[in-house]
Write a structure and sequence with these properties.
Order of helices and strands: HHHHHEEEEEEEEHEEHHHH
Distance between the termini: 24 Å
Helix content: 40-55%
Strand content: 15-25%
Structural class: alpha+beta
Strand order of the largest sheet: 1-4-5-8
Largest sheet: 4 strands, mixed
Number of strands: 10
């Protein structure tokens, strides 16, 4: 079997490296020194460069001006973005756009997706429910009234909500189905209350009070929300992998030049063993990530549904990225807490990614349920 990436996927990585090469992780104030959000907006100049490099249209079909690549290509680009803590809604916009293209109204897709590829339209999604732990689709209700849908409920921790042009809101119907509704931030009945994440980014609590939308703004295909949530979770794993790789490289550089007793501390066995353990964590994060991304993109069958591979990837990503940044702080000594040094920023982002879309324990429970329902022979 050939496990190498395709030429198109490798080209996407090279384009991403070129765009992100000029991004500084400390381009905004430190979250440790800022009482509120580190910035009101995401990095618009970087967003424009991503559009110019055709990276915002990477996963869109050629009919909508895109390259038609798969979730693996998206994860490859997300991995590069996390290495520099790029402050852009690349995951949210791409995931919602792919879901709209795959499951949504064709006319709505034809209207919105070319604008997404040009960087003119930003999409986000409320995927955290009311508390960040309960199912997001149960936090909002959706009912039909004539030719309209009416939404009521609350989604917390919506990333980039005030900057987005559409917010994808999952909601459950009286019949027990889940639909996804695309709501503009200024829509009647929608109220946004500011929240701040662990890494200092501005989030929002989206409160919906009898929000009325047309049928074309609703994605009601069976399985659409499960597919979108799986893609968001896998993309979060890609971000965790890229961040972890950057932190381990930073740690290797520091311990290679920091000397004790006339020798670099990297040559000490206790230091080398800890770094090696974290390298193993990253390799496990990587292989489970590509397995999950491949299952989502290909639709290939397996012993468990694709959600099982996604759960395994998120378990490794949550636990692995936490261990990587904790070991990095230990091996840096007090220097890792210096707010003039970028490691503390990576630590804050790692904590945010660890808990995003459910911590490891939540996905272990999901995996257990899947194993109980699909016994392995």
């Amino acid at each position: 079997m050939d496990f190498t990436f395709s030429e198109e996927q490798q080209a996407a990585v090279e384009a991403a490296k070129a765009v992100f090469s000029g991004v500084a992780p400390d381009g905004v104030p430190s979250p440790a020194l800022t009482p509120g959000a580190v910035a009101e907006e995401f990095d618009r100049p970087l967003w424009a460069r991503l559009a110019a490099a055709d990276l915002l249209s990477l996963v869109l079909a050629p009919a909508h001006g895109g390259a038609g690549l798969d979730p693996i290509a998206l994860c490859l680009v997300l991995r590069e973005s996390a290495k520099v803590l790029a402050r852009v809604p690349l995951l949210e916009t791409s995931a919602v756009a792919m879901t709209l293209e795959r499951h949504g109204d064709p006319d709505m897709a034809a209207e919105l997706l070319p604008r997404v590829g040009r960087g003119d339209l930003v999409l986000t999604v409320g995927a955290n429910g009311r508390s960040g732990h309960d199912p997001a689709e149960l936090a909002v209700t959706a009912r039909r009234e004539g030719d309209r849908w009416v939404l009521d409920g609350t989604q917390t921790g919506v990333p980039w909500a005030r900057c987005a042009d559409r917010i994808a809101i999952p909601a459950h119907t009286p019949e027990g189905r889940t639909v996804i509704v695309l709501v503009p931030p200024g829509h009647d009945g929608l109220t946004l209350a500011d929240q701040v994440s662990t890494n200092g980014e501005l989030l929002a609590e989206a409160r919906l009070d009898s929000v009325r939308v047309t049928t074309r703004e609703v994605i009601d295909t069976e399985g659409a929300w499960e597919w979108l949530r799986g893609l968001l979770t896998t993309g979060t794993c890609a971000l965790a992998l890229g961040l972890g790789e950057a932190v381990l490289a930073m740690t290797a550089a520091y311990t290679g030049k920091r000397e004790q007793f006339g020798f670099p501390v990297a040559t000490f066995q206790a230091v080398a063993v800890q770094a090696a353990d974290r390298y193993i964590d990253l390799r496990a994060m990587e292989v489970t990530l590509w397995q999950a991304a491949w299952r989502i993109g290909s639709g290939a069958a397996g012993a468990l549904p694709a959600s099982g591979d996604i759960a395994v990837a998120k378990i490794w990503a949550s636990e692995g990225v936490r261990r990587v940044v904790q070991t990095a702080q230990h091996l840096h000594g007090g220097f890792g807490a210096d707010t003039d040094y970028p490691l503390h920023r990576y630590h804050a982002w790692a904590k945010h990614l660890e808990l995003s879309l459910g911590p490891a324990a939540a996905h272990e429970e999901t995996l257990g349920d899947l194993l109980a329902a699909h016994p392995l022979s």
